[in-house]
Each structure stands twice: as structure tokens, then as C-alpha cells.
Design a protein that fits this description.
Blueprint lengths: L6 E6 L3 H11 L6 E6 L2 H8 L13 E4 L8 H10 L8 E5 L4 H9 L4 E4 L4 H18 L6
Helix pairs in contact: 1-5, 2-3
């Protein structure tokens, strides 16, 4: 009997309500999803580099990244991820409230894989997360370490 390997998702998000909504939306996913959450960019980079309390952190198959966070924002995190040969293949989906054209252009200049503006409506937010799940977990072939 083969065991199903869970997909590892790292959510970099400082809003606990958005974390809860995302967990709720992924609860009924067609695949097994283990979601780790860090609250800012400093923690995200420590997690990805397996530093300090994250020494045994799993390598994520996908990163959900907010742009506007304390200490180190998502733009800085995205630049560091894509500049690091050991991390740059991990797909990054920006999931943020910003719809500013300069944020969208900057994210794509930094090689983000996908940019999604968070809907403010609960039902729409759930639909967006389910669409992410459907595409990234069912359609796309993700790189493995």
C-alpha cells in the first residue's frame, strides 16, 4: 500500500483571519495539504533556510505570500527566494490585498509565479483559495527537491 505524500504549503501571512479562511478552504482539498504559517518575512526566510526553531521545517511545495507584513515585507521575501538557487524553484503565489499596478509589476519582475488580489468578501475568498488548490495541486506538476 502506498502512502500519499502531503503537499507542503508555507503561508506567509500576518492576518489570522486570512490564515483561518485559507485553512477552512483547504480542509476539503482533493489532496492532502500540510500548511505551515509564519507571520512575517523574517520568519519566512528562517523557515525556508531551516534556521533556529525551523531547523526541521519541511521544504514547501508552494508558498502563499502576503506583500504587506511587518519586519520584512513580501517583496523583499520574494526577491530573496528567487535569488537563492536552493529556493527559486519553489512556486510563489502572492495573495495580497494590494491591487496597485506597481506591486503587480514589481512582483512579476521578481519572478512571482502568480499574483492574486485577495477578495474582501468571504465567499469570494474561499473561491479564490479553492481555485489555487485546483490549479496548483491538481493541474500543475510541482518541482520536488
Amino acid at each position: 500500500m502506498t502512502s500519499v505524500k502531503a503537499l507542503q504549503v508555507l503561508m506567509v501571512e500576518d492576518n489570522p483571519d486570512d490564515v483561518d479562511l485559507t485553512r477552512e478552504a483547504l480542509k476539503d482539498a482533493k489532496v492532502v495539504v500540510d500548511m505551515e504559517v509564519v507571520q512575517d518575512g523574517v520568519e519566512a526566510m528562517a523557515f525556508l533556510r531551516r534556521e533556529g526553531p525551523y531547523a526541521h521545517a519541511p521544504r514547501p511545495d508552494l508558498i502563499l505570500l502576503d506583500l504587506n507584513m511587518p519586519r520584512k515585507d513580501g517583496r523583499e521575501v520574494l526577491a530573496e527566494i528567487k535569488a537563492d538557487p536552493s529556493l527559486r524553484r519553489i512556486p510563489v503565489v502572492v495573495l495580497t490585498t494590494s491591487q496597485a499596478e506597481e506591486d503587480i509589476m514589481r512582483a512579476y519582475d521578481l519572478h512571482v509565479n502568480c499574483y492574486i488580489a485577495k477578495p474582501v468578501d468571504f465567499e469570494q475568498f474561499i473561491k479564490v483559495v479553492k481555485a489555487i488548490e485546483g490549479f496548483w495541486f491538481s493541474v500543475v506538476t510541482l518541482p520536488r527537491e
